[in-house]
Structures are given as C-alpha cells and as structure tokens.
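Lab channel / #folding
Pinned by the channel admin:
"Please post every new chain as: sequence first, then the structure tokens as a reply. Keep commentary short and put observations after the output so the thread stays searchable."

First post following the new format, from NK:
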Amino acid sequence: MAKYLKITTTNDGDVHIPIGDGLLAALVSATVVNLYSGIHSDAAATAGGYIKLTCTGATQALIDNINTAQVIAAETGWQNAVVVVTVPSGQTVADYEVV
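Reply from TO:
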C-alpha cells in the first residue's frame, strides 16, 4: 500500500508526497529543504528527481517532523495512507517543486 506525507504549503495548498522506500530530508538552508527518494547520491542530485520545499525559517525541527511522519506511516496499517507533517511554529513551507 502506498503511503504519503501531507505537507500544507502557504501558496500551493496541500502536497501529498509519496514515501516509497523512504525519503531523505536535507536541510539545505532556512529557505530550502530537499526531499530525496530512497538513497541519495551526488549523481542523483545533479540528474534531478527530488522535491524542493521553499520555506521560511526552516530548522532541524522540520526535518525531525518529516522523519517522524515517515516512521508513523511505516507503523500504521494500509487504511491510513496519509500522515500529516507538522510544520513547527514560526516556520512555513511556501511552495514545492520537482527538480
């Protein structure tokens, strides 16, 4: 059963990101969080195929919440296909794009 992370953005509404075999969340800066599918490599990054979240005030707390949501998704039954990622207070996710 496919599982998804749901992240609410200020500009694009809700985005449902497929977890697949797992996501690696990378805090690039306070304005950028990248989500890589499966195992990340430099070759994969330069070839594209990741999700870029444009943020305001992003910190490790957002990364931790993304990782926690993945664990919750893995531990739940097939009826619970969507897990909400809590965006910490003072942080926002404005947009997303597939790069």
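NK: Residues 27 and 39 are 16 Å apart (CA to CA).
TO: also worth noting, Strands lie at 4-9, 13-18, 23-29, 32-37, 51-56, 82-84, 92-98.
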